[in-house]
Design brief:
globular; about 80% helix; single chain; mainly alpha; about 270 residues
């Protein structure tokens, strides 16, 4: 149960912090010699983070849905705000397509060939440097309401790159948002909203595999512990990262990724 809760906390935190959840879920069992908990447990942890992001952003998702189908641009005030919410909703759909297509085509191949700790260490370091560059180069003057369809597509393509272990979905999408001159908090907010459909789709596909294999009944309470830990830590990670990025640079995550990558290379 302790391992299940620890892995749940790690999944919830690292899914949204720009430090790669996949890397940490591979590295922690490797470092401590824990057994692989299996595909079903991995699915449960991802569903926990999905609950965390939906719980935090449920008002945003409601406004986006309402704006997409029931509101048209007209003048100023509430109707325009609803129009902007609806536009962001359509951008979420557009940004989900690249990662969804890449996942269907390459996910199994990537997971079978790129899970080596040395590869993870290299991607942690390389994409840390890319995040540092984005922090330095981005003007950080555009809000979420200033986004356009090109922003959404580019950030969606960046999310597809994050299928590679060690890249980080939130890290890559925030990096791209910064390169597009979005404010840090705006880039993170869109990244988190964008994560929900792809986590849901990935969870449903993996759940189909779990259904064929069979659900391990003897691990039920371990799954509950991991799920709850993942949902709570994911919710808290989103809340406090948005506050942090409203005030601070992303460099602390750059340093962490580089140090972790170097430590892995030394340990190997």
């Amino acid at each position: 149960m302790l391992q299940a809760i620890i892995l749940g906390i790690i999944q919830g935190l690292t899914e949204f912090l720009p430090i790669s959840s996949t890397a940490h879920l591979i590295l922690i069992p490797w470092l401590f010699g824990w057994d692989d908990p299996g595909l079903a447990f991995d699915v449960v942890l991802h569903l926990g983070t999905l609950v965390g992001v939906i719980t935090f952003f449920w008002r945003d998702f409601y406004r986006m849905f309402h704006g997409m189908f029931f509101t048209h641009k007209s003048g100023i005030g509430n109707s325009y705000v609803a129009y902007v919410d609806g536009r962001i909703g359509w951008y979420i759909i557009a940004g989900t397509i690249p990662a969804g297509a890449a996942g269907l085509l390459f996910k199994d191949r990537i997971e079978s060939s790129l899970r080596d700790p040395r590869i993870i260490a290299i991607t942690l370091i390389l994409f840390a440097l890319l995040l540092w560059w984005a922090e330095a180069a981005g003007k950080k003057k555009r809000r979420l309401s200033h986004m356009n369809i090109l922003d959404a597509i580019l950030i969606g393509c960046a999310q597809a790159v994050a299928l590679i272990p060690g890249v980080s979905r939130s890290g890559m999408t925030i990096t791209t948002g910064l390169f597009r001159n979005l404010e840090r908090a705006a880039a993170a907010r869109f990244a988190f909203l964008l994560s929900a459909p792809i986590i849901m789709a990935g969870g449903l596909l993996s759940f189909a595999d779990v259904y064929r294999i069979g659900f391990p009944q003897d691990m039920l309470w371990l799954f509950v512990g991991g799920f709850v830990a993942s949902a709570i830590s994911g919710f808290l990670a989103i809340k406090y990262l948005l506050i942090f990025l409203g005030r601070q640079k992303v460099n602390i995550f750059v340093y962490y990724r580089i140090l972790l990558g170097i430590a892995i290379l030394i340990a190997r």
